Amino acid sequence: MHLSRDLLAKSIQHVFKALSNNSQGILSGLYIYAGNEEVVFRGSNASLTVQYRACVTDSMIHIFREGSIVCPAKYLYEIIRKLNDGNVVLEVNEQLILSIISGNTRVSLSGLSSIDSPFITTPQYHQHSGNSIDVSSNSLKSMIKQVVGAVSTSEAKPILTGVLLEVQESLLTMIATDGVIRMAKRSIWIENGRGFSGNVVIPGINLMEIVRLLDDDEQAMVTIQLNHHEIRFIAQNQIIESVLIEGVYPSTRNLVPTTHVSEIILNIKSFRQVIDRVFVLADYHLITIHVSEKKLELRSSTAEIGDVRDELLLEDKNGANFSITINGKYLLSTLRSIESDSIRIRYAGKKSPLVLIPALEDNTWLFLLNPVMRG
Amino acid sequence: MHLSRDLLAKSIQHVFKALSNNSQGILSGLYIYAGNEEVVFRGSNASLTVQYRACVTDSMIHIFREGSIVCPAKYLYEIIRKLNDGNVVLEVNEQLILSIISGNTRVSLSGLSSIDSPFITTPQYHQHSGNSIDVSSNSLKSMIKQVVGAVSTSEAKPILTGVLLEVQESLLTMIATDGVIRMAKRSIWIENGRGFSGNVVIPGINLMEIVRLLDDDEQAMVTIQLNHHEIRFIAQNQIIESVLIEGVYPSTRNLVPTTHVSEIILNIKSFRQVIDRVFVLADYHLITIHVSEKKLELRSSTAEIGDVRDELLLEDKNGANFSITINGKYLLSTLRSIESDSIRIRYAGKKSPLVLIPALEDNTWLFLLNPVMRG
């Protein structure tokens, strides 16, 4: 087949980068299939599969004969990236050698033994099966970014390295917690809920990759298909499939305090800046927060080096003054994942987690951050 | 003293980055001196010292009292970087605590025990002593970039990890070689030669840092002072001092072949692109070059994976056709360090190094690249 270097490089890069970033096994072979109307590029590791599709009708591709091959991914990626701009000819011969011809450059790459039964885009993937929902690509990316930072990085409880995705008729919720200090939750309404409920746990590391893979296009939609052993994200020109984490996700309903002693509203950007500053001298990442009257004071110190004090005006406050010591690293990463301007923080006592919710009455996200007990 | 956060951050970053990049020991303390007319920032590791100066007359600095302190460099750097824009007040008290005050932010940093006799900019450094030369900052940076890639990375012969800097009246020359495969040489004429000759060997790793530290300003000049145990680069607002490598640098005069069998002229950019491409499949970095008639063909292969062939038109050729196998990695790094458009390559036989010189008659730089013997 003939196609442009740019399209070829873009397609291969899309698949290659997703799978070579991922620590869960190495991508060795990249599968290329030239059909009647499309070229499909596909790669997978033990945990994630990415299939990218270039349509003959959308692009300058000429396919002379149907065919497929699996090539050494890293070499293919490197060589395509370095070709001059212009047209590229790909040919597979009977000895399973891929020839790449572009200008004066002639490359031969040996094919690998074929991947077993690769999935190819076929019309039924786009049909609405019972266990599927449609969400906008941007909402999905925003949800993932908000919760994924709260997953556990320890393999001690594998289930907590995943994000719980819950569909309840028209409500889609994602929850992540490290089981000790942090919990993050975000919900959105699905417009075309198909009346099914279900939940799965997806490896956090795969969701981070999916954020990178999905388009930024405002209009783009993604179909999420839940199956027993995997989840599929089907977009305009790609299908991403992730394994699931087996097991029962712990209930998080009782973690959220039902009452509070005090409540403050803050500008997120200013709050982030002062935390960033006091964090520099925060031994063990500990930052102490004092709320009094209309201001919030932060303190940190490092033994034998020094200390920092900073303060911030509150946008609003209801309830008593309070002091609490928290892990500044987790607070910073939580604040970085919030897209709003302001935040509402509820204090429910020395041993209760801080509750971080939107400043406006709009209960779509919620973070819990447990205090650190000192002494 | 009072000064702007930007100036403070810039000064501290300048000193901090130079010394924390460098693998030769860690920068622990950063020295700050506030004099009558200047603030001096200084840091050093075992091998390199950087002193940066901010003048009271050039900037908005108010010094209330002369004083100095040595602070934990990393913490100082991090905290200053994160302050809000605006004015910063620095104060040292009798307990050797540095207070940093900026808006609502108050930082205390403990001073370290003082560095022994730090050097401060004093007028005599700018006087012309016998063993000094003046060169433009840009020429110096260009020279260093061309030769420094050829130094040895092995500590087996420490002298070869350095660059030979040779002053012969009005000619300044730098030479580097790994003693096996590569040699690089660059000369420039010094306008104000002061009639002295001398040579020193400077650690390559320090020269790489000096390239980053020196201004890009077209007009900027640098005074190079040679002493017995160190070399100093004195610029407008900084002094950089490097240790020297002891020992006798091996003679490189007999390495350059005096005759040649064939000579070709090539466009450097196109040559680099084809090498970049064939390099992807070059086992052990080996690339074979065939020169025939008016073209140059390149080949590489990786066992069991595949091979690449590419070709390039020559701009000119005199002499016989030839074939040679070279290390593509070294050829690429050599070509990347050359600023010209074209290059002249001389072939003097299967066992002689390739000679790379300017295409135009202008003998200011020269590279040698030994062929790789196969079989």
TrEMBL record, chains A, B:
SUPFAM superfamilies: DNA clamp (SSF55979)
InterPro entries for this protein: DNA_clamp_sf, DNA_polIII_beta, DNA_polIII_beta_C, DNA_polIII_beta_cen, DNA_polIII_beta_N
Domain DNA polymerase III beta sliding clamp central: 135-250
Residues covered by the DNA polymerase III beta sliding clamp C-terminal domain: 254-362
Main location: cytoplasm
GO biological process: DNA strand elongation involved in DNA replication
Recorded GO MF terms: 3'-5' exonuclease activity; DNA binding; DNA-directed DNA polymerase activity
Claim: Cytoplasm is one of the keywords in the record: yes
An example Gene Ontology CC term for this record: DNA polymerase III complex
Domain (DNA polymerase III beta sliding clamp N-terminal) ranges: 3-119
Keywords: Cytoplasm, DNA replication, DNA-binding, DNA-directed DNA polymerase, Nucleotidyltransferase, Transferase
Compartments where located: Cytoplasm
Subunit structure: Forms a ring-shaped head-to-tail homodimer around DNA.
Similarity annotation: Belongs to the beta sliding clamp family.
Known function: Confers DNA tethering and processivity to DNA polymerases and other proteins. Acts as a clamp, forming a ring around DNA (a reaction catalyzed by the clamp-loading complex) which diffuses in an ATP-independent manner freely and bidirectionally along dsDNA. Initially characterized for its ability to contact the catalytic subunit of DNA polymerase III (Pol III), a complex, multichain enzyme responsible for most of the replicative synthesis in bacteria; Pol III exhibits 3'-5' exonuclease proofreading activity.
UniProt protein name: Beta sliding clamp
Native organism: Paenibacillus xylanivorans
